[in-house]
Amino acid sequence: MTSGIGARVLRKEDARHLNGKAQFVGDIKIAGCWEAAFVRSPLAHARIRGVTKPAGFEDRVFTMEDMPDLRPIRCESTLPSYKVSDYPALATDKVRHVGECIAICIAPTRAEAEDLAEAVTVDLAPLPVLADIDTALAPGAARLHEDWDDNLFLTTRHDGDLSGAKARAAVVVERSFETARQAMNPMEGKGVLARWDHRADQLVVHTSTQVPHLIRTGLSDCLGLDQAQVRVIAPDVGGGFGYKCVLQPEELSVSWVARKTGRAIRWTEDRREHLTAGANTRQHRYKLTAYADGEGRLLGIDADIWVDIGAYSVWPFTACLEAAQAGGNLPGPYDLGAYACRTWSVATNKPGFTPYRGVARPGVCFAMELTMDAIARAVGKDPLEVRCLNLVPGAAMPYTNVTGKFYDSGDYPAAARAAADMIGAGNFAARKAAAAAEGRLIGLGYACFTEQSAHGTKVFAAWGLPLVPGYEQATVKLAPSGAVEVRSGNHSFGQGLETAIAQVACDWLKLDISRVKVTMGDTALTPYSTGAYASRGMVMAGGAVSKAAEELARRLRIHGAHLLQCAPEDTEIRGGAVWNGQASASFAEIAAAWYLHPDRLPDDVDTAGLEVTEGYKPAIDTGLFTYATHAAIVEVDPESGRTEILDYVIFEDCGRRVNPMILEGQSYGGAAQGIGSALFEETLYDSAAQPLTSTLADYILPGPAELPHFRLGHSETPSPYSRHGIKGVGEGAAIAPAGAIVNAINDALAPLGAELTRIPATPHRVLGAILEADAAREAAE
Fold it and tell me: Treating both helix axes as pointing N-terminal to C-terminal, what angle do 212-223 and 249-261 enclose, rounded to 10 degrees?
């Protein structure tokens, strides 16, 4: 029995999770470990005039004054106009958002540490608050960072020539769109436990991260330690979504205190800390003008995009990744000839942006897909027909779009039509009319997107980032028992990577997955990897494991052939053994010869042994493009503004499917997060940048009662540029739901003349759109 690529193998990691044997940061037990709590700013923008420690506890409270050797997080970029923002582990001269860390307090228990934090007095002098994009960009606005000449991290431009599109356009559609600020809300918040290992002369940091090797680099730089003196271990991680792929200020201060005091120190983030001080995401503003001919064929798009970034750049992805991705990805899967776009990354008194599942693409998909429906209405055509007219056809692949995105393979119109067939678009008009006769408003909406996965060196270098990913490495070893050990510096934090890369090894070595042990997330035990982000795990880590397993298989055939007294080319691997006809040498026998009985080996044996480390990146490193179409049917209650999802369909293509069951789980989870963006999730602030959604009673997440029964369809178009044709898919399903659902809402509200252009589409906003349409109709009469 084999468990290779394409098999629906149960996840290896689930056994420990379901049996309560997983180990997260909060589960780690170290003798003498103390807990940490932070003194956080109650104001969004203020000068620090002083911090007073409680008498008798001065050695348990640390401020930045106590840490003169701890460098701030400094995220450089080579992009023109980029401005650097030093991000201190603990605030120095002033605070720049509510919840910013001012001091760290340690005690034997978390409760005692929190009591100590309450006893610390902070003298703050309020400063003018930049609560949003408008106040930050207003003439004469206060400076968030005094050495800047404005409140912009970065501006970018794509200056395409729109003159031809304007001259030929029969239809011009203008729209403004807004997406809400969100928090990521992984099941497990941030967490870090640091201790100094005197025997190894090494700082050992257990942290809930997606990128252990990157965190090692960041910690060593800020702490002034050689990387050999830092070991980072990512234990079980309860979800990341991008929130845990950056260096966190808490990781720095906890690590510094652990080294200073000689104690093991742990801090775990509570939900209120997450919602008020954790990194934010998603808050975009768009102004789009689309030019189309009378058939609905897109001729050009002119776009302005603003992103409310918050106070600081995160390392290593900077504050500018979101806007740069938005400008580059707005055209999406469409064959667009002319494009112009300007972006502004705006600094405000809010927590800084962190990459979040889909990075900018949920916003650009929302804006682009609502624009496509607006074009369809303007030319009087079905929205699906207009999309298929504009989507890049399969015959054009590979295709380079107007912003230089290289689409490697696929048939985008076919996916859109498949989704329409699954949702029953052919009879929807009759269904809608029947509902209307009953006084019910239902609507159908679509959203199409591409997901740039596993983009590598060229792409990240073009973004000017301080750290550019290159080759992913992995080790595959035949253990003395005949089992296989796989080591990857990437990490599994809920997405099933531990299982999927084991399946890749099984594909070459033809043994059951129960005989494969995977080790990940420990910088002392695994080869270098920049980690899990950008839907790169399966392509990059899977590719590296594939190369290493292929080479190990070659060596096994050589060793097995020697034991079988035949030529290697006359052997094959199956069932955990090397076979020649009816004779076989098991992996255990081969391992025994190499490790325990070298007398059985030839004198000229290859001394490279049975442990292989290989590096990998795809033949092109500009990205492999997964794509999908989502379709939704909703019912809107015009009296309450409530939206109910009646049906939801996803038709996607991510190249070769390694584990269809895991892929489906990723799709369900991503779509659930996308529905949160569409209908529920919004981090609200008042005019003083005080967070108004600081608990889960205020910040609304979708639960089982709010989610539909998702129906999935798949096609497989392998990429010609990756091993096994695999593309990444981890972020995709979160990208499209807002576009599909709000298009469906607008279709339902079309008889009332109402249109939503902002998410989440809460009952309040739905009713507001209806009332606005009523007022416009009355004014026209």
Answer: 60
Mean pLDDT of 753-776: 97
Task: Supply 266's token pair.
Answer: 């742990």
H-helix or E-strand spanning residue 205: strand 202-207
Instruction: Round to whole Å and give the CA distance between 646 and 652.
Output: 20
pLDDT of residue 574: 96
The answer to whether residues 684 and 691 touch, using CB atoms and an 8 Å cutoff, is yes
- DSSP structure string for 724-751: GGB---TTGGGTSHHHHHHHHHHHHHGG
The reply to whether the predicted model has a pTM over 0.85 is: yes
CA distance 99 to 40: 5
- What letter does residue 756 receive in the DSSP assignment? -
For 395-427, letters b (16+ CB in 10 Å) and e give eebebebbeebbbbbbbbbbbbbbbbebbebee
**E strand or H helix that includes residue 668:** helix 660-675
pLDDT digits 0-9 by tens, 146-204:
999 999 999 999 999 999 999 999 999 999 999 999 999 999 999 999 999 999 999 99
What per-residue string of b and e applies to 665-689 under the rule 16 or more CB within 10 Å gives b?
Answer: ebbebbbbbbbbbbbbbbbebeeeb
Q: 20 pLDDT exceeds 60?
A: yes
Q: Give the three-state DSSP class for 642.
A: coil
Contact yes or no for 312/319 (Cβ under 8 A): yes
pLDDT digits (tens, 9 = 90+) for 40-96: 999 999 999 999 999 999 999 999 999 999 999 999 999 999 999 999 999 999 999
Average pLDDT over residues 241-264: 97
pLDDT tens digits for 544-586?
999 999 999 999 999 999 999 999 999 999 999 999 999 999 9
pLDDT in tens, 372-397: 999 999 999 999 999 999 999 999 99
Distance, in Å, from the CA atom of 668 to the CA atom of 649, rounded to the nearest integer, reads 11
What sign for the dihedral angle of Cα 58, 63, 64, 70?
positive
In eight-state DSSP terms, residue 159 is: E
For the chain, count helices (H), then strands (E): 19, 30
What DSSP assignment string belongs to 213-245? HHHHHHHHHHHT--GGGEEEE----S--TTTTS
Query: Cα–Cα distance between 744 and 632 in angstroms, integer?
Result: 6
Residue 641 has pLDDT above 90, yes or no: yes
Pairing outcome for strands 572-574 and 577-580: antiparallel
CB–CB of 145/335 below 8 Å?
no
